[in-house]
Amino acid sequence: MVDVARMVFRHHDLLFQLVWREIVGMYRGSIMGMLWIVISPIILLMVYGFVFSTVMQVRWPITHDADGLGFAPILFSGLIVHGFVSEVVNTTPRVITNSPNFVQKVVFPLEILPLVRVCVALFNLGVGFLILLAFLVLTGFAIHWTVLLAPVFFLPVILLMIGVAWGLAALGLYFRDITHTTTVITTAMLFLSPILYPLSVLPEKWRAVVYLNPLTVIVEAQRDLIFWGRVPDLELVGLYIVVALVVAWAGWTVFRRSRHEFGDLL
Q1: What is the pLDDT of residues 102-112, one digit of tens each?
Q2: Model confidence pTM above 0.90
Q3: What b-and-e string marks burial along 231-243, b requiring 16 or more CB atoms within 10 Å of the CB?
Q4: Residues near 228 by Cβ (< 8 Å), separated by ≥ 6?
Q5: What's the confidence (pLDDT) of residue 203?
Q6: 35: which residues sit within 8 A by CB, 6+ positions away?
Q7: Burial of 119 (0-12, 13-18, 19+ CB in 10 A)
Q8: How many other CB atoms are found less than 10 A from the CB of residue 37?
Q9: Which run of H or of E encompasses 256?
Q10: For residue 64, what pLDDT is reported?
């Protein structure tokens, strides 16, 4: 972790420039430009809210905390978390193969490239989170003080995804089929986590299986903080942090040990 912190601090200007280039490049040439950063999440919120609450008549179980709360914001809070994870998982396997010029530069810090994808996904998540809060304020929902803790409790999943990004970036060179399986995996993660449905509707024996999904703990924690105004299970979050640290270390190790082969593999 000390090595990672030093590397990020040493190359923070480069990291910022690459992240900003990626964000601007996604919307370069479009008529609306970077307004799509805001428009896309709003459209997503409206569409999912209409389909699930009006067409499919889906309702979240009403409790004393959720009385009168619409289904759309609860659903959207889970979707933006899934969007962050899926964007990292689906883009990082190709991050080295798509940057042969950087690989050929001896002094270029290749460890930065997976971090760029994580930061871009984190930027999109932040925009979605602000839109969610704005929606809650405009609809008259009482904002709990615990919402201030939401970014803090999201740090473990950021650490987890950094490790995953490093690992997938390296393995994507050895196993090109990874790029064809990540979409399937992230789609399965969506339906095997309490995003489209509450965890309480599952039989007790299946909840343990759903908790193996890395999305489950963080989605439940974010909803506790944002909607119900309570602090999540700290023991569960603590276990999540331990797993995130192990994954981050493993991803960093795999990337550093295989880095010298990147040029030959390309």
Answers
A1: 777 667 888 89
A2: no
A3: ebeeeebeebbeb
A4: 63, 65, 66, 144
A5: 82
A6: none
A7: buried
A8: 18
A9: helix 234-258
A10: 40
Q: What is the pLDDT of residues 18-54, one digit of tens each?
A: 888 888 877 766 666 667 777 887 887 778 777 766 6
Residue 95 vs residues 34, 100, 166, 185, 251: alpha-carbon distances, Å: 23, 9, 10, 18, 14
Query: Rounded to a whole number, what is the distance in angstroms from the first to the last CA of the chain?
Result: 28
Distance separating alpha carbons of residues 166 and 247, to the nearest angstrom: 10
Q: Are 118 and 88 in contact (CB under 8 A)?
A: yes
CA dist., res. 186 & res. 215, Å (int): 10
Cα distances (Å, whole numbers) of residue 120 to 2, 17, 68, 123: 23, 11, 34, 5
Amino acid symbol at 20: W
- pLDDT, one tens digit per residue, over 90-146 is 999 999 888 878 777 667 888 899 999 999 999 999 988 998 898 888 877 878 899
pLDDT (0 to 100) of residue 228: 85
Classify residue 242 as left (phi > 0), alpha (psi -120 to 50) or beta.
alpha
DSSP 55: I
Cα angle 74-76-78, degrees, rounded to a multiple of 5 = 80
Rounded Cα distance, 232 and 219, in Å: 10
Tokens of 262: 């990147």
User: CB neighbours (10 Å) of residue 28?
Assistant: 10
Here the tokens at position 42 are 């709003």
> In this structure, what token pair is assigned to residue 178?
């990874």
